[in-house]
Amino acid sequence: MTGRLVILGSKGGPALRPGGPSPSSSLLELGGRLIVVDCGLGVTRGLTDAGVDLKRLDLVFVTHLHSDHVLELGPLLHTAWTAGLATQVRVCGPPGTNHLWTCFLQSMEFDIEIRIADEGRPDIRDLVVVEEFAEGPVLDDGGLTVTALRVDHPPVTDCFALRFEHAATSVVFSADTAFFPPLADFARGAAILVHEAMLLEGVERLVARTGNGARLREHLLASHSFAAEAGRIAAAAEVGMLVLNHLIPADDPAIGDADWIAAVRETWGGDLAIGHDGLQLELNGGEPA
Asked: Measured at the alpha carbon of residue 257, what is the angle toward residues 254 and 260, in degrees to the nearest 5?
């Protein structure tokens, strides 16, 4: 197995509901690297359930600073540290990521200092390196390259799709975005495109039960993509597989996989997977196995 992609959290938005999925996070194992993409609530449990030894944590990428993508960044790193992390972790995120990490360290100062003194742990502040990126090349390390594309997610301006490449394998994450045609060129020929998706009928029910429904609807329609639009990007990019993720809604009992499939089949006839927590896809020779 060359690597694997695991969807740890498949839900768009920060709300949690009984028995429902977790917000955005994914695991990508590629080129011998352990890569986490986004850190919504549940990422730490998702990684351990996927069989990951948190001491192996290597690279963490944040696409943007909405809470459903970043709320568990600090707790993930801290938990890995208490699990025995002793090697450096690189965190790559948009402007503001370093401030977020610094504030988390300040909030946990008592615990960190006492564990260093009482348990003899290395200083977590020396183990985590935060690097902020903009559009363009992000990382070139040991055959792994990462590139960022600024996408359309108003009012957030620093929101980036990410392309990971190693040898013949490439995986692209759309991040949160409205329909954005330049993403097709960015994802050209990728083995897997992980793209956000929503369904209009589910959006209408979602806003109907939300206190700020009108404003929420306005945001969703301006800042996110419908499933058929994700299919249009996948078709234009000629990717190997499309994975729908960051589903809106992801916890509507009236909507199932058949509804997502029907919507995306309007525009995409290739290999397709509907994201759910724990979905695992193996990568073999540059293609999803």
From this structure: 90
155, 159, 227, 158: which is closest to 193 by C-alpha? Answer: 227
Q: Distance from CA of residue 126 to its chain's centroid?
A: 25
56 contacts 46 by C-beta, under 8 angstroms: no
pLDDT averaged over the chain?
94
Domains (range + CATH), the chain? 3-288 (3.60.15.10)
pTM for this model (two decimals): 0.95
Bridge partner list, 273: 243
Measure the CA–CA gap between 203 and 215, rounded to whole angstroms.
12
Active-site residue list: 68
pLDDT in tens, 46-91: 999 999 999 999 999 999 999 999 999 999 999 999 999 999 999 9
Torsion of CA 136, 188, 171, 179, to 10 degrees: 80
